[in-house]
Design goal:
Amidase signature (AS) enzymes; 513 residues; twelve-stranded mixed β-sheet; 2 domains
């Protein structure tokens, strides 16, 4: 594909013989001049269909009026965590009444600029509300701004966000974690009560761990992804960050469930009726926890992080919860399966298809038009964390075809079954959320530092993007002044258990020393 070609739909025309010839040559198809004439003739009525559909006016339905807000100054954006500030509140009362929300800047809020962490989308303003934004407003919450995120949500650090890196609120020379970096910082610093993020390899749980807040990645499909910039639809999750478990629970109740627009939810078989997460209570009786040995055994693993997490597990044992170490060797394979799906999936979805997912779901035409224009005019501005996926994705597909991507997708089922077998006996899997403490921000951003920074952050988190299991980061202590998080994982659609055990840890276990 020639991304430098023009992109104007209004003057849509029929192809020329030369253009058809070049397309055929690209695919190795031999066509005579007579063949080309025949194909051109049969294409004419089809092009007329395209023209007719193009003339249809797109119907936009923005339910609620809003204050459009402003880009905050450096003085009111100490950690570079705000992408935009505003105030959108449409009703009093509701389960989220009085709660202030930040929305990750790859989630559409109509009328509010969205950059998805990159200058490529400078000037883009969504004309729809994502389902999650709409549900926050319908349940009485106030959206007070968009949070900064990593460039196209493609990093576990906080060093590639546009226009400036996001800084850890506990030590500004360290990363906040990514890609939902600003969301975690705004929660940790008390500027908002709750923040939404997205998570394809750990992008909610990593920053939650490194900023010392609770961060839930729910079961794949439980929260609709409609109106959110996708990277790889089989990995996309929406997540919730807050300083306490109660805010996680009420937000999950407000924004989860089918919206009739996101096919992921039907593939995942999201239940029609969901629990009242706000009514879940703390519980210890009957729970059994499996400490996953492999989650503590990476070459990147830091001894002090492991010790803090194991100390917390010991306290849970003292409360009467059964805790036992087990082994899941396939846990080590998760990062390798994810590497293939993420490389080829992001290349195919974001680049080759220009953001388009061909399905019986909702299409954000306005976003697709703007992203396509950005790619065709500014593809060299892609961050290194995405450009590596373009280069490798094209190389693999050209030389080896779709086999390895397909094989990696099939291995997801095997990986899921390896966890499910343990979860038949235990209620939770337990391990450090990240093997390391927060890592320093690079002194300068170049290709090497962009790709190398935050290395190893997603080793424990990414397998559960592949398997879809719900997982929560629970802050459990500090190492050298920086937060340490523990991750708990449960069965599909068993967020109730995660909320219940997290209440226990929040009340009895959590330390702030």
């Amino acid at each position: 594909m020639n991304f430098n070609s023009g992109y104007t739909i209004n003057d849509m025309r029929s192809p020329t013989k030369e253009e058809f010839y070049e397309i055929a040559r690209k695919y190795g198809i031999s066509l005579s001049q007579e063949d080309l004439e025949d194909y051109l003739e049969f294409s004419k009525p089809i092009i007329e269909s395209y023209k007719l559909i193009n003339e249809e006016v797109e119907r936009v339905n923005i339910k609620y009026e809003r204050n459009l807000g402003y880009r905050p100054s450096n003085e009111e954006n100490r950690f570079n965590a705000w992408a935009w500030k505003c105030s959108i509140r449409v009703k009093e009362g509701g389960i989220l009444s009085g709660k202030r929300f930040a929305i990750k800047d790859n989630i559409s809020v109509a009328g509010i600029p969205m950059h998805s962490g990159t200058s490529m989308l400078e000037g883009y303003v969504p004309i729809i509300d994502a389902t999650v934004a709409e549900r926050i407003l319908e349940n009485g919450g106030e959206i007070v701004g968009k949070s900064s995120c990593e460039a196209l949500s493609a990093s576990g650090g906080s060093h590639t966000s546009y226009p400036l890196p996001v800084r850890n609120p506990y030590n500004e020379s360290y990363m906040a974690g990514g890609s939902s970096s600003g969301s975690a910082v705004l929660v940790a610093s008390g500027e908002v009560d709750v923040a939404l993020g997205t998570d394809q390899a750990g992008s909610v749980r990593i920053p939650s761990s490194w900023c010392g807040v609770f961060g839930l990645k729910p079961t794949w499909g439980l929260i609709p992804y409609t109106g959110i910039m996708t990277l790889e639809p089989t990995l996309d999750h929406v997540g919730i960050m807050a300083r306490n478990v109660r805010d996680i629970a009420i937000t999950l109740e407000a924004i989860s469930g089918r919206d009739g627009k996101d096919p992921r939810q039907y593939i995942a078989n999201v239940p029609e009726r969901l629990p009242k997460y706000s009514e879940v209570k703390e519980r210890t009786e009957g729970f059994k926890i499996a400490i996953v040995k492999e989650g503590f055994s990476w070459k990147e693993s830091e001894e002090e992080v492991n010790d803090i997490v194991l100390k917390t597990a010991g306290k849970l044992r003292e409360l009467g919860i059964k805790v036992r170490e087990i082994s899941i060797p396939m846990h080590y394979l998760g990062i390798h399966i994810l590497n293939i799906i993420r490389i080829e999936g992001v290349w195919a979805t974001l680049i080759r298809e220009e953001g388009l997912i061909r399905w019986l779901g909702n299409y954000d035409i306005h976003f697709l038009e703007n992203w396509s224009k950005a790619l065709r005019s500014r593809i060299s501005d892609l961050p290194p964390t995405v450009l590596i996926r373009v280069l490798l994705g094209e190389f693999i597909f050209k030389n080896y075809g779709p086999k390895l991507y397909a094989k990696a997708q099939n291995l997801r089922k095997v990986l899921k079954e390896s966890y499910d077998r343990v979860l038949e006996e235990f209620d939770f899997l337990l391990m450090p959320t990240t093997p390391t403490r927060p890592q320093p921000l690079p002194k300068e951003l170049n290709i090497s530092s962009a790709l190398a920074s935050a290395k190893g952050a997603s080793l424990n988190t990414c397998p559960f993007n592949l398997t879809g299991h719900p997982a929560i980061n629970v802050p459990v202590g500090f190492s050298k002044g920086l937060p340490v998080g523990m991750m708990l994982v449960s069965e599909h659609f068993n967020e109730e258990k995660l909320i219940s055990i997290s209440y226990v840890i929040e009340k009895y276990i959590k330390t702030n020393t």
